[in-house]
Design goal:
7 helices; alpha/beta; two-stranded antiparallel sheet; 11 strands; Rossmann fold; globular; single chain; about 290 residues
Length: about 290
């Protein structure tokens, strides 16, 4: 079957800027379901021969288009256009979440929720990206396919699955953006993954706001200070990365934002700094293999 990419939003109102393309209903043999794939291309993609770094991002409903998000958008497209003028260019691949299955697919660990045992499918979701999505993107678009030019990023549970994928597939992902990471799924499982599998290689952006604790209420309702709990949980991830030879300001950028809450607006505000740290500066066509 021939896969067909279409320009995004030709027949519906939207807030997208730039060249965003959509593939409908890509099947995942790892998860036995289908989802669209969104690909945002740099402004010079159609006028150059260069190849580009790629960032894989989750929750695609919230990345580019306010019309598809119920909580606002990250403004990834607007941000990438601004950064292009600073010398950064990358292909952004957005994978929508599967609504009620989001928690299950974004957790590689089993967890308890309201007395129910939930089996996480995050390992299969990362395999979907590595084994199905990435080969498709690399054969369809002009990418720099090595780990040094391949990243993964998301927020909350998207931060969790991004940091997990980065640690478990260092030969695939060379940089990671983990915004407001939902560190608590499976107890200390993510912390232990970082402790035992982070290689000290690549680049990691990690952040948290000082007022994100309300997100924890469902999980730790008896806590006296949920905001402090959230910050402390992310700091433990930072410390585990430092113990595995990541260096602040060089291979690890850690940001705490006073007053920031847990939403797309906060992540959109921190996105430009994260991308400046993670993405390599663009090279002229003559310096890139074509």
């Amino acid at each position: 079957m021939t896969l067909r990419w279409h320009a995004y939003g030709n027949d519906t109102p939207h807030t997208v800027v730039g060249d965003l393309r959509r593939l409908r209903g890509l099947y995942s043999p790892q998860l036995d379901n289908e989802r669209d794939v969104l690909v945002w291309l740099p402004p010079d993609y159609n006028t150059s021969t260069r190849r580009y770094p790629v960032m894989y991002m989750h929750d695609a409903q919230n990345l580019f288009d306010a019309a598809t998000s119920y909580v606002g958008e990250w403004q990834v497209d607007e941000t990438m256009l601004r950064l292009f003028d600073e010398g950064y260019a990358a292909i952004i691949v957005g994978l929508p979440n599967m609504n009620e299955k989001r928690r299950i697919e974004y957790s590689p660990y089993d967890y308890q929720l309201q007395g129910q045992h939930i089996t996480g499918q995050g390992a299969a979701y990362i395999q979907f990206i590595v084994e199905t999505v990435k080969p498709l993107i690399d054969t369809t678009f002009r990418t720099l396919s090595d780990a040094a030019h391949t990243g993964i990023a998301g927020s909350s549970m998207g931060g969790l699955i991004s940091l997990y994928g980065f640690c478990m597939y260092p030969a695939i992902f060379g940089f990671c953006g983990a915004f407001s990471t939902a560190y608590w799924f499976g107890g200390d499982s993510l912390l232990n993954t970082v402790r035992h599998h982070a290689t000290g290689k690549g680049r990691v952006y990690l952040d948290v706001g000082s007022r994100e604790g309300e997100t924890l209420r469902l999980w730790t309702p008896d806590s006296a200070d949920l905001d402090a709990d959230y910050v402390q949980g992310v700091r433990q991830l930072r410390d585990a990365l430092l113990q595995n030879q990541y260096q602040l300001g060089q291979s690890l950028l850690y940001v705490e934002t006073e007053g920031a809450v847990h939403n797309e607006g906060a992540w959109a505000a921190r996105l430009p700094g994260a991308l400046r740290f993670l993405l390599p500066k663009s090279l002229p066509d003559s310096a890139i293999n074509t």
